[in-house]
Amino acid sequence: MKLQRLGRFAGYNVGSLRRDLLSGLIVGIVAIPLGMAFAIASGVSPQYGLYTTIAAGVLISLLGGSRFQIGGPTGAFVPVLLMIVLHYGYENLLLAGMMAGVMLLLMGLFKLGALIRYIPRPVTLGFTAGIAVIIFSGQIPGFLGMEGLEKHERFLPNMKEIATNLSLIDGYSIATALVSLTVILLVSRYAPKLPALLVGLLSATLIASLLFDGSVATIGSAYGAIPSELPAFHMPEITLERIEQLLYPAFVIAMLGSIESLLSAVVADEMTGTRHDSNRELIGQGIANVVTPLFGGIPATGAIARTATNIKSGAVSPVSGIVHGVVVLAVLLLFAPLASRIPLAGMAPVLMVVAWKMSEYRSFAKLLRTKTGDSLVLAATFLLTVFMDLTAAVTAGLVLAVVLFVKRMGGMIKVDKVLPDRVARHGKVAPEAVTEQRDCPQIRIATVEGALFFGAAESFGRALHETVRQSHRVLLIRMGKVPMIDLTGEANLAALVAEFRKVGGVVLVSGIQEQPREVLERTGLADMIGRERFFSHTGEAIGYALTCLDKGRCVGCRQFAFRECAELSEEQAVRSAGSVGAQNAVRMI
User: Fold this and answer.
1) Residue 586 pLDDT
2) Average pLDDT of the chain to the nearest whole number
């Protein structure tokens, strides 16, 4: 009964439990080969991937903010973890994972979960596709049976290592890998309800044991037997020197983990129509990554493919994720000796297929074909991920995306000189009303559209200067379509106001929105213009403008200006005009 009072368990019953048990069993079976494969690809022994799947899988489901999230080792971490293992070793990887967990926990506590959503789609698609290439290429030696190759951090050195050691290719391993790959593809196509990766791996193990026994490298021959027990609690050695050394790698793990987990949670929301709690999700991920290394596990995050499998299998609540961890634990305790016989060549196709799917090649190609700024961001992020590293790729992708966004927004600023339209009713202003024969020599009315921020400030200043002549006595700036202004935009506006006032001109502002008004008041520009010269409507501003002209008279204005006052009542317009000449003109309407 208590569970029913919890949001994620609302309406939970025996039928729900039955569905969670089934989906947890299915996802647990799917997670076993992936856990081992991702651990091997990350440069550590396969059992550590299983430990991660068990500990992180249970904690992320229990404490996270998504009802359907499945956590564990993922492909996104492979290049980062491999780099840490190659540079710092496995023991330091555990400490880096714990530090990343603390960072994730703090991000959730400080409610930074929503910020991850602002990472542009081309950036995430670019680095995901780049990681897919790294994972796929990293499995080529295993597929070809090339043992003893030196692992490198970068893509090109790894490809060079393969090219210079082609003599190590083993035919038995290729045959085993082809069996695994063929079975995976056939099962995925013709029996999609079966765990294709596990079936392929078992088929390859059976073939290798019966036909190539002793001729193909296995998990046992390469890494030793997988122990059929959980490791003892072990606290990594923590020193100030090691913390300083691992601060940057831990930050990369935390950022990548937060992005991956929240993307997975969003996918789950789209598939189920639910909503996750992003900050709670980060807290759950953080706790899981602090605890998991204490039992030998590597960093974990939300796994999109396994989460989708969980949902498709009928999951109802986080219980399915907990069950998935328990299933992996049971397999580890009961069948660990059999896992040692799995051929490495049979595992290579597992990650190759995963890499192909995670690349989102259709979306990648579609976005690339648009030949827009987004396709440039995509290509840059992808290439930097493959040929440099993930941190440089994401940083460059974000910077490029921001620059292109600023450029686009800066080009959207628009300044039009307008006059009341003779054709339109109620004296509405329009840029088409301004012609060589019909213009006002003393009053310039300018409509500004768009955000006045640093990317648009120069264009705004230049455009407004071009609309104003020295003969104009009054400049009326209509700012009803300016949603925001930053300090750079304010500085350019202030420079224009100061320049116009030097020649004896008067600046009026109409229709200004709340945010721009607050900025002008805080910077003092509102006082420079004169707070009495801010008006809600253009008609009121024109009425005031007439008081600024000689004796309230202007031949140019007599052609058009007073029609704008028709939007107001005669009493309001007269009060706004405030002079005998303006009052007479208003009554002429």
Assistant:
1) 36
2) 85
